[in-house]
Amino acid sequence: MTSFALRPVLAKAGAGLFLAAVVGTAAWLVFSGGCPSAAGPSAGSGASAPDAAGSRHEALWWTPLPGGEVHCTLCPNACRLGDGQIGLCRVRQNIGGTLCSLSYGQIAAAHVDPVEKKPFYHVLPGSRAFSLATPGCNLRCLFCQNWEISQSYPWEVATRTVSPEEVVEAALQSGAESIAFTYSEPTIFYEYMLDIARLAQARGLKTLVVSAGYINPEPLRALLPHVDAYKIDFKGFDPVFYENLTGGARDPVLEAMKIIRESGVWLEVVNLLVTGQNDGEDDVRALARWVRDNLGTDVPLHFSRFHPMHKLANLPPTPVETVLRARRIALEEGLQYVYTGNIPSDEGDSTRSPRSGEIVIERKGYHVIRNRLVDGVAPDGDPIPGIWK
Ligand code: SF4
User: Fold this and answer.
1) CATH superfamily placement of domain 106-371
2) Which pTM does this prediction carry?
């Protein structure tokens, strides 16, 4: 993936798409926080931090351990790091007994996207989301669709240092109605996300998190008051699949989805169907039943087609019929809003009223053709859940 970085003020380009020019910074800028500004050698992680001063910001969610070690409590990986070591996410380092975020303010990608591309289908239809990412991820999905930035250390990709205030200003100037933390894994730039989200909500922007949901309950609960909508990329219902193909575990993600749902923050779930790996009928039916029984029938569930990528580039794309079959199974299990993505079929593009079956938001791919909702109510009187204004 090409990495994009923000200019202070974005230039409008083309049909409403705003892109920043590529600006690879030769040297990182020291940002803030209690972390020292000089880079120390990395030890034990197998990675070498650059010699130049880096962007450092004291991390949240960690505890000191005897002997200068730290324990990161942000995600279920629960890294214990000796001095100089970097966590599995590649962006949190023990520097002299303090856990520091190396990705705070380090933007590797920024675009203004249709909100449907996240995908959110029940959030401000037809609006644009100012979308950004830093490097790093706390999972290791073999099928990652954004591996160039998610599986990189901050010094391995072009980034630009952008303050939270500059991000919000750029989002407002772009005409976006929301800021989306996306592309890589926002959990691992938690501190940056939180600071941006607070400012964004104060300026009237919605905040959207697009995440794999591999986060511990306590930091998740602390983040949720600053989030309007959460999209969870659920990888597959088989726990063995989770362990073998993502490097994570399934159950913490199930728990995270329940916490989000109980909080009242809007939730949508996406399942990327990887050819022959997690796309069997049993897997799909088990996921649909779990969503129905634990989250509710009105949580949107999206099935998305895998394209050969990263370490599974040898696999063929998911057959279109497999994606459509998954949608039919989820509907059979009682889910009311089931969508499909990345396929040349409009069968799962539009939102229908559960009461009458009528199309209430008509889409073609990521584009909204017609929105018949009035204050979230369909023409047949059925209220459709979501964030509509
Ligand atoms: S956020 Fe990073 S450092 Fe912290 S536990 Fe997870 S992988 Fe490890």
Assistant:
1) Aldolase class I (3.20.20.70)
2) 0.89
